Predict the structure.
Amino acid sequence: MNNMALMLVDDEERFLQTTSKLLARKGLEALTATSGQEALDKLETEYVDVVILDVKMPGMDGLETLKQIKSRHPLVEVIMLTGHGTIDSAVEGMRTGAYDYLTKPCDLGELLSKSEAAYFRRQVMEEKIRQAQVRRAASSPRDFVRELENE
Amino acid sequence: MANNHKQTKISDLRKKLLTAMIIVPAIPFFLVLAIGYYQFVKSLEAETFSRISRIANDHRRVVQMFLDERRSDLVFATDVFKLRDLSQKNTLAKAFSYLKSQSSAYVDLGVFNQKGIHVAYQGPYELEGKSYANAPWFKMVMLHGYYISDVFLGYRKVPHFVVAVKATNGGEVWVLRATIDTKFFTGFVEGVRIGKTGEAYILNDQGMLQTERRASGMIMSKDQEHIKELTPRGQSEAFVRKAEGGHEYVYATAWLNDHKWLLVVRQEVNDAFSSLWEATYVGVIILLIGGAGIVSIAFLLTNSLVMRIQMLDREKEELDQQLIMTSRLAEIGEMSAGFAHEINNPLQVISAEQTLIDTILTDMAQRGDLPQSKDTEEVLDSVAQIRQQVDRCGSITQSILKFARQKDPKPENVDIGEFMGQVADMLRKKAEVNGIDLTVKAQPGLPKVNADPGQLQQVLLNLLNNAFDAVTQRHGVAGGKVEMYADNHGDQVTIRVKDNGHGISQHNAGKIFRPFFSTKPVGKGTGLGLSVCYGIVDKMNGSMEVESTEGEGATFFVKLPATTPAPPCT
């Protein structure tokens, strides 16, 4: 579990700092980003399993960021972080592909348990994909080899 | 102040209404009455004039006939007798008795030769031998062959008038003259009876009375009313004049006796128009009754109208009050939502900081870096307290946001009986733990209700939880009773949540649906629950009410409109 790669996206810097300190204490290194754009930039270079994404941010808001993440990195799981007033957008976020949502103020335990669940789903998904590939390789090894060569 | 203003407005309105309601029907009413009265007076006047004219003409004919008959009598006598015969006393007496048999108006009879000497006389006076050569009547009869004189005194010094005819039989010219009794003639002329004040008399062309008048006026005296001057010779007239003594009379005149005499018939106006007075009397009664009717109906209508207006005013005021309440709720909702949302961000940071402190302290304690002292204990306690208060803030902002989040409901047809059972089941355990007797009943065959199930559940849960709090506060863990009951009146379904808790004071009952109003101890309630319920039910076109007796319990009513049954498919 401790090798879960987490990224926190929130415009509240102090929250990012404190939370990453807390996560560090739990043995989790977390990336942070203060805007949607920064998050997308970091996703290009860094490997991330789960993104905790604030819905309400200046500039690119949470929903837009979510769409971008999902289109560029479909396997990255996203958990929306919302004030209760924007719960409708959290629901919409889940329709767009977010795994779950957290309401502010949330405590660390809740954040962690939902992140772990998301991480678990991602692993299940990756496992399924791997099995599918294996099945395909078994049924037509030539195609598989060609595909590997292409990569 | 505002009340005063409204009072004057209402009384102003009442005045205006009353005036309009009296004037509008009164104008046509009075107009009809006045026109009718005017027409009646007109026709009555015309009718009266024509009646009195007719009487005058009829009477003129009768009097004229009388005079003509007297002339015929004399002509007959002169045809039958000769001057020689009538100079004989007994023959004259015979002729006179014949005339008397024709009319008792004859006073005497005389025979004159052509020189005007009274040759023979039959009557009460001594007139034989007197000469009448210069008497106007004698000249006139010699000239015209026939003459009826005006009333005069003559030798006898008594008012009388004569009828004379000239005869030429037997080779001689002579005159036969008869005197007519003015008393008889007066009686004959006066014999017209019209009403109480009607009278008839004759004037000559000098305006002298030829008959006596019942009212006043000696025979041969001058008519003081100058009636003759008002009647052109040869014409019949009818008119109204003021007579001596101030009374008004209706006059009708007719000429007779070759336009020498004027027959006057007159009647006092009041008498002639007596039916007018009757009609006026009736008219006044109609006027009074009609006027009173109009006024009283106007009063009644105005009163009922004003009452209705006042009622509508009151209803409008209540509606306004509700509207203000609703819009205030919405405003507060919006404002507090923004507020709560903004609070949540710093709260999130505080929460994270507290968790960090707590984690660090726990780690330090595990490592043994934390000295066992009273200060350490207080720091730990304080940190724990911060967590508690952050959670409390969180729950406040959450409920505020819940209150504000009155999104558009997604209504479905809900079977209230079944639904109440489900909601009650959610609290069954809590009721058991607290020793509360929770019963749920629904009248069979309840119509369905169009409501968002989630929201309706929130309302019922809130009411039940409040009831639980109320009964446990009063009875502890035994003896609490909460009953949920639903029935319907027509297309309104009413859900009652009744408890036997501590009840609500009169003072608080009015404020119970207001946001942030709570009687619970600090930190136990946000005062938003019922106002959220109120808002939800209001959005469903329903209403919420409360009834309570302090110390005995409270009943909350949720009234919801039933779904109108879908029309059968054809």
Remarks:
- The CA atoms of residues 121 and 127 of chain A lie 10 Å apart.
- Helices of chain A lie at 13-25, 36-45, 62-72, 87-96, 108-139, 141-150.
- Chain A has a mean pLDDT of 87.
